[in-house]
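Entry 14: structure prediction run for Pseudouridine synthase. Input pasted below.
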Amino acid sequence: MRIDKFLSQMGVGSRSEVKLLLKKGKIKLNDTIVKSPKLQINPNSDRLSVDDQLIAYEPYVYLMLHKPKGVISATEDDAHRTIIDLIKEYAHLNLFPVGRLDKDTEGLLLITNDGQFNHQLMSPNHHVPKTYYVETLNPIEDSAIACFKDGVILKEGKLKPAELQILNTKAAYVTITEGKFHQIKRMFHAVNNEVTYLKRIKIADLTLDNNLKLGEYRKLKPEEFSLLGLAFNEDEI
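Run finished. Output tokens:
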């Protein structure tokens, strides 16, 4: 990888800022000052420092994204903006979404390049709960609580039990442990209602950061891995 690209993606600065640092002799490759932005480096083995501060290479990245409406949960698409288009860094790490949210659904979406992390959270065998805030067209009947708990029947079969917590006549929290196509919308349709707004607010015990505006993201904190039921590996973040 080109040295200017690597340093830019590791947050040192823009390409032009990195070139200026190189020109000033601020950057060392394996303890030797280098000045060419075109220099090819191996991120896994070369040591890079800026003003004698080592720039660590992150082989794996784990991000929390506040997904906005109108953006699809894909890595690339010719017709629509994707969640990867929102990420300004780490392009060399081949990021992908952990699971998906519908185009018109907002909320918590995790982004990574770690396939094992993705499998642990998204495998149907692991039954990781996901909680959504829902607004509906019609009042939510109390009878829907038992219906969701028993398992709504869709054309592909009976769903696993879901928890419905009614907040007011047209708003609720729903927690599910699977991810069928348009599942929550279809569940409400099955009880003669329609979803008008949907936002994922929690995966396992990890809650969407209220400080993140729509389209913003940040790295997961070490302590947040345990909220997902996962061990934090300090060597991989």
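Notes: Helices lie at 3-9, 15-23, 115-122, 143-150, 183-190, 224-227. Will compare against the previous run tomorrow.
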